[in-house]
Input
Amino acid sequence: MPNSHSYDLAVVGAGICGLAHALAAARRGKRIVVIDRDAQANGASVRNFGFVTVTGQQAGECWLRAKRSRDVWIEIAGPAGIQLWQRGLLMIARRPEARAVLEEFLATEMGAECRLLEPHRLAEYGSGLRADDFAGALFSPHEIRVESRDAIPQLAAYLAERHGVAFLRETAALAAAPPRLTTSRGVVEAESIVVCPGDDFTTLNADRLARYGLARCKLHMMRVRPDAVDPRLPAVMSDLGMIRYLGYAERPAAAALRARLEDEQLGHIDAGVHLIAVRSADGSLVVGDSHCYAATPDPFAPAEIDELILDEFAHVFAGPRPTIVERWTGTYAWACDRLMLVDRPSDALRIVLITSGTGASTSFAIAEEVIAELYG
Ligand SMILES: Cc1cc2nc3c(=O)[nH]c(=O)nc-3n(C[C@H](O)[C@H](O)[C@H](O)COP(=O)(O)OP(=O)(O)OC[C@H]3O[C@@H](n4cnc5c(N)ncnc54)[C@H](O)[C@@H]3O)c2cc1C
Output
């Protein structure tokens, strides 16, 4: 029961951001309780691709955090029983303008261990792509992929069993004022509190969060079952991703690519559609996504958005249209001017939001920084 213990740290939110903070504090030997209003993880952290993306993240802090977070995923995967299903990324350039972006990317520090592939070499990375239609591709060795709907519960179980982290589920946090966290089950005593509320901007510290102009981003996702998927294939992305992911989009050559895509795929751009396709253990692919921004996005998932995603899929993957076996949407916190935020209402209280679609890729590193600042 919450009243029977006092903790060094209370974490609100059992998504990847909250669990990452619990891990970073547990590694320092702290006594931790994690509070979440849901019975099991249900937010962005289990709705995503589980694609831990390094190449393509914005140069500088975000790219460095993604590299560190990828390393933490690898460190904990074995002990927590988390499978790494895929490694690496093929960034397909369907157009010469996209290839030019990749060439500029390769000349940066971030391109150091990546390589440019001619289309005829793509077969070495797996069959099933429309390689003859491509202008080239970039292979990045940095990425890993977890099945988030398994990995997040496994990470929580590891924290509980290995590090003694307490979990209070089906418990809403109502007010955070360390050393007291008021919850729907009573008061939890904790010296410090980290609030990782995902896309809930109003339950805790609404006055602080109102300053950041936050919105939610809604995404469409599908699981498809093609006739066959080569198990060698890394994660696959294509041209539309190069005008979204800042590591590419901030290269000068991206302007020409954007202009051509606006001519040829304006409907995709308007719906924020680009292609990510990652493979699961059963041979299905998780495919997405789209981006729709609003304070409260509507709960509907128009079929035409899914068709735009499948259209790009059909330009990249050979073969007949795959069977769609599952559809869902997800939302994450979004801000137009930052990828994440750490708010500091007091010495012992932090509010941490990932305000972009990068939480699976950067949370572990962000959490290490926040916990280091809290504990010195
Ligand atoms: C469809 C989709 C695809 C994505 N793909 C990727 C990807 O491939 N790679 C990548 O890096 N990122 C991806 N992202 C982004 C990533 O999933 C998010 O950035 C990340 O999951 C955010 O984690 P979080 O813990 O902040 O939020 P969440 O996972 O939403 O967790 C927040 C938790 O806080 C709890 N909570 C909130 N307020 C309270 C309260 N007052 N009391 C109790 N509990 C509370 C909620 O119940 C919830 O469990 C994707 C996101 C989506 C939606």
Summary: The radius of gyration is 21 Å. The chain has twelve helices and 18 strands. The mean pLDDT is 96. The first helix runs from residue 16 to 26.
